């Protein structure tokens, strides 16, 4: 078998292994540039094994530097963990659908976006139907609100 075909098969296997490793293990764009370099090298190896090795090195470096800004941007845009799940509602506006009586553990109903939530007033004063409220806290399956 020709050396170029052997190198091409090796580089295709390396590209597949690195690509799968990126998907399953890292997710940080560390292995992906090397997978891209190996895939490019597979084609170049058909011309010459030494060209394949050179293309692997140059292609991996180029892909690494090309993907670095994207990786940095994705790292910077990760959401704040406090805004995950129900805590995403903190600070959101809502409208009272069912009166919220004043006092502890007295609940009414509010609409926040398209969702309906049981709500407590943050003060001892009740909040009437139709009033605009802001979510201060999420406690279990209910929200603590104040009038806007």
Helix content: 40-55%
* Main sheet summary: 5 strands, mixed, barrel
Oligomer: single chain
Mean pLDDT: 88
Rg calculated over all Cα atoms? 28 Å
Query: How many domain regions?
Result: 2
| Secondary-structure content class | alpha+beta
Order of helices and strands: HHHEEEEE
Gross morphology is rod-shaped
* Distance between the amino and carboxyl termini: 77 Å
Uncertain ranges: none
- Tally of helical segments: 3
Total strand segments: 5
Strand content: 15-25%
Strand order of the largest sheet: 1-2-3-5-4
Note down, in words, how this protein is organized.
This protein is an alpha+beta fold. It has two domains: 3-76; 82-147, OB fold (Dihydrolipoamide Acetyltransferase, E2P) (Beta Barrel), CATH 2.40.50. Helix content is 45%, strand content 22%. The protein is built from three helices and five strands; from the N terminus they run H-H-H-E-E-E-E-E. The protein has helices spanning 3-26, 32-45, 49-76, and strands at 93-98, 108-112, 115-121, 132-139, 142-147. The protein has a five-stranded mixed barrel. Strand 2 (108-112) and strand 3 (115-121) form a beta hairpin. The longest helix is centred in the middle third of the chain and has 28 residues, at 49-76. It is rod-shaped. The mean pLDDT is 88.
Task: List the defining traits of the structure above.
148 residues, alpha+beta, OB fold (Dihydrolipoamide Acetyltransferase, E2P), 5-stranded mixed barrel, 3 helices, 5 strands, 22% strand
SSE layout and pairings?
Elements: H1 3-26, H2 32-45, H3 49-76, E1 93-98, E2 108-112, E3 115-121, E4 132-139, E5 142-147
Parallel strand pairs: 3-5
Antiparallel strand pairs: 1-2, 1-4, 2-3, 4-5
Helix pairs in contact: 1-2, 2-3
